[in-house]
Write a structure and sequence with these properties.
Helix content is 33%, strand content 36%. It is α+β, with helices and mostly antiparallel strands. The protein has one domain. The mean pLDDT is 81.
């Protein structure tokens, strides 16, 4: 199994690429807590993604630096 290390900018580019490649990538934008998110449909539901991070359960902002730490921790 290959291991990959991504920077925050690379993760953002990957998310942008996935959004662009989807046939109906963005259904709506949502503003919450001073942040704007794009609602992205995936096979199992939706993800709210913004420039500051991902909106998690209970409307908690998960910043990109935390996402990167989680990727690093669980990449195997």
């Amino acid at each position: 199994m290959r291991k990959y290390i991504f920077t925050e900018n690379q993760i953002k580019k990957i998310v942008d690429t996935v959004i662009t490649e989807q046939s109906n990538p963005v259904d709506e934008n949502v503003k919450f807590g001073g942040h704007e998110y794009q609602v992205v449909r995936i096979d199992t539901g939706t993800i709210k993604v913004g420039k500051d991070g991902i909106l998690g359960d209970n409307s908690v902002l998960i910043p990109w630096n935390i996402v990167l730490k989680l990727i690093e921790k669980f990449k195997d």
